[in-house]
Amino acid sequence: MYWNMFWLPNADLNWLKDYWMPGQENLKQSYPFSSYPDNPYLIAYEMLNKSNRDALTGNIQATYSFTKNLNLMVRTSLDLANEQRSQQRPFDTEKFNKGMYRAQSIFSKEATSDFLIRYKSKMGKDADFSVSGGGSMLKNRYNREDNRADSLLYPDIYTLANRAGVLDSRPFKSSFDINSFYGLATFSYRNYLFFDATARNDWSSILATANSTKNTSFFYSSFNASAVLSEMFKLPELISFAKLRASFAEVGSGELDAYKTALTYDPVANFDGGLQNPSELANLNLKPLRTTSYEAGTDIRLFKDRLGFDVALYISNTRDQILKARLDAASGYSTAYVNAGLVRNKGIEIAANGAPLKSRNGLNWNVTATFAANKNVVKQLTDTITQMTLYNGPGSRGAIIAKLGGSINALYGRGYERSPGGEIVYENGSPKLTQEMFYIGNTVPKWRGSVGNRFQFRQFSLNILADAQYGAVGYSLTSAVHAEQGKTKNTLPGRYNGITGKGVIRNADGTYRPNDVIATDVWTYYNNHYGRDNVEGTSYSTDFIKLREVRLDYVLSRALSNKLKLQRASIGIYGRDLYTFTKWPAFDPEFGTLNNGNIISGFELGQFPSTRTFGINLTVGL
Amino acid sequence: MKRLISNPVAILLVLLALITSCKKDFIDLNTNPNAVTHALPRTLLAPTLTDIVSGNMNRSQRITNELMQVTVNMGDTEGKIFRYDIRKSEGDYLYNLWYAQLTNLNDMYTGAEETNSPEFKGIALICKAWVFSLLTDTYGDVPYFDANKARDGLFTPAFDRQKDIYTDIFLKLEEANTLLMNAGDVLSSSDPVFGGKTALWRKFGNSLYLRLLLRVSGKAEMNVPAKIKEIVEAKASNYPLMQNNSESAILKWTGAAPYVSPFATWRDADWYTPKLASFFVDNLNEWSDPRIQKWGTLYQGEYAGVPGGYPPGQAPVAKSSLSTSLMTEPLLGNIMNYAELQFILAEAAAKGWIGQSAKNYYEAGVESAIKQWQLDVPSGYLTNERARWDDNYSLDQKMELIHLQKYYALFFTDLQSWFECRRTGHPFLPKGTGLLNNGVLPARLNYPVYVQSVNPENYKAAVASQGPDDVTTNVWWQRP
Prior knowledge:
The structure holds two protein chains of two kinds.
Chain A: H1 14-17, H2 40-46, E1 48-65, E2 70-91, E3 98-123, E4 127-149, E5 168-169, E6 172-189, E7 193-204, E8 217-228, H3 229-232, E9 239-253, E10 266-267, E11 275-276, E12 280-281, E13 289-302, E14 307-326, E15 335-357, E16 363-380, E17 387-392, E18 399-403, E19 410-413, E20 425-427, E21 430-431, E22 438-442, E23 447-457, E24 460-470, E25 473-476, H4 477-484, E26 504-506, E27 512-514, H5 522-530, E28 539-541, E29 544-555, H6 558-563, E30 568-582, E31 593-595, E32 598-600, E33 603-604, E34 613-621
Parallel strand pairs in A: 12-15, 20-26, 25-33
Antiparallel strand pairs in A: 1-2, 2-3, 3-4, 4-5, 4-6, 6-7, 7-8, 8-9, 9-13, 10-11, 13-14, 14-15, 15-16, 16-23, 17-18, 18-19, 19-22, 20-21, 23-24, 24-29, 25-28, 26-27, 29-30, 30-34, 31-32
Helix pairs in contact in A: 4-5
Chain B: H1 2-6, H2 8-20, H3 26-29, H4 41-67, E1 71-72, H5 92-114, H6 118-139, H7 162-179, H8 198-215, H9 224-234, E2 249-250, H10 268-272, E3 275-276, H11 278-287, H12 291-295, E4 334-336, H13 338-350, H14 358-371, H15 395-409, H16 416-424, H17 451-454, H18 456-466
Antiparallel strand pairs in B: 1-3, 2-4
């Protein structure tokens, strides 16, 4: 997708359709405009990634009741999969001049066995209680045979036998077990007081080191209480339901790939017995993360359920979060697994629904709304680190940096050099950029919300759903590259006769005067403003309001349905992702960049256009 | 069954038995079957050298060739190195590569200590000296004494002054020379440069010593002339040097995996994109130097280049480019060749630091540089007006003669010709009017931008001590 930004915007796509040079099919690619990016038709039709997967899932469960109140459940389940993958690239492509063929055979297995003993009983007339205890055992096994021929003898033949060099074989195995014991107790009194408690201990092999299993075990518990006030007391007529709840919960996790707790050397492909250090530093004392959260909430419904609110407030502390921190390469490694001290999340979640109009034969109108806001603060990192780079932007322009007191999703980068008065400093007509990186904004929105409306009149119903997010920024490589190439409108002013930027110039004596130099080198001018090196100028608000879905349905009248010998029938039209109100310069302010299986927010690196969907829906009940 | 369940002691015992087995086999299970925990020195050497030389060639093509007017990657977009427009991100690649490989070289040294192998200790020290010299010559002050200690918990190494780095590099090279004095050979397949012959490593180490002594020779406190005299004359038998072309340090790309040139997988179209510069082509044409036939492509029946540093919007007609046969050329894996050593000695002699004749060294350099490419030196080459040595020339004229030839001997050798031009101002490069940086050859690469955020305190200290982190700041050995 990155290369697509470089295509000529006003060239005929048909010129690309014959993607081989005439007479040199499968040997010479045709690129009428530029030899940098591969021809997109060639990418679509010749660079194939194939997959063939057979999977089997099964489980067996048995329950034995010792008495009416005591039973035992035993269960085992198995998930098996065998997958054949291959990737092929033709000759004369950017990465593989002589073609490529790779094939992987993957076997994966996950077996889980668990048991649960349950005992429930009454205490007196008004109280119920239950106690259960159980355990589980999870075994995960993964085995991959990976053979690669990164150059081929003959074009257009994709087999390992057609390799031009030595076959590069990279087998990979991974195993881990997670064992657990847990217990749960619930107590209820007269259908209006509820209390439950859980306790759990996990043992995860992923945290075992070469000589110790002390970090593999972690215990966590939770307590949850709620009271239905409307059942306990006689409340005013207008309150139809009221509930209060509070909880304390701990969660532990060792979520990670296996083998991150020992220093090892990786074999190097093609070298006889060659070894090399990996670029990520293992952690010989990796601890499980623990999250402790407190939550309080209420659920209130008024006017015979015509109006309802569910409000929740929470605060959670995550300790020892397992993060892959960027290191200065001069330390010998580019990343390290660390347990990051303490990150605190605070937030509120509100869900509301109302029915402003309600009538049997007239217009019905229902509204549902949600709102969620969250703020996170880094309270503590490790003993030796006061700031941690979690992700580096493209060409290390911009980074997600967790600093003490800041957010874990904070975007930093170079930007405009400013005068003490906060104005942009110009030099030779073009804006001057700082050498240092500074805080640009948060990449995770302050809040998200949605509003759904449903109108119903007789057999017609109309649904309109819109949602929004607010308060985050993102770095857009798409807009930067387009601006560098003069493909965006914001690079038009002064293109032919120069432009004087709004800002100041530094005088020789250190004072500033308003910028009075016309930039005739407009390319440098706009490159400094909107080019990729200016992280501040290339970061845009990701605020949006999206019209998520509109649908109109018509339900056939019972009489008509009966005549057609149908139970019921409805027909409807719908459209999804219809419109986005946003200042985001690229396709969609909702984006994620995939990095080694993790989605990184904050950096848009050549996104695909998102799609708009329309459809007709016909439902028939026989 | 009922009785068993209701007996609390029995339940407790069963639970206890289960819990103790909860961690059973965990250590075995979490032992990585895809990797090994120990590495003998001989397993590390070949992949490390291959990665370093590949990366060096890659940047030689991208950076050195452009700065030194070997090629001109024509175009008017930003980041055109031939116009001295160097992106902030340009410094990342080599910094990351070299330090990553130093981790392997350190392990090679410790592995050699554990297995009591002076051979690999010596080789590791020479390789480290080489890589650290590349680092400091490229960036100036860099982490040295604290580098590569993340395993000990040191994530943010301090930057050391270039002077201290060079002083220690010289100690390491002395130590390597001693270690390899009576050393045996190592497994030949483990060493793609010298086939395991430690005597050749020793000669390379001492030749590298001379290269680096010369680099800091502008700093009087380093006492370079005396040391060079000691190596070349007073204690010559203690410091064996490369004797001929076959003793050059070259990772020759045989074409058989893993020794495949990093350019072999390039598309011809990408290789042809940078065009040869006039400076590079014209000298070879004037000397009737046969190397141009191996290095360049013909344009309308002749070898012709484009002027470097032309302003945007005034693109000249593109002419010759680098020959595609270079994409698989074994000799591009050059680390340090015999010809370079001769030019080093020629400069030392011309400056009067050693007694032998500069002319002899110069001519030996010229001849071996051409012969290295399996070519014959054309008759009359050394009497040609522009290649002829004259003892009556001024030192500046002699330096230009030596360094112009040395520039070609350093073809595709990491960033060496740029380092040498920064040090001496030779060869004298014509300056186009489109050059940025006021037409001054960039003096260094900036540190990777991410270092500001991952090692902020030490970065700030380095900038405070060395000067602004940009390409105009001179490194220590460049300063007067």
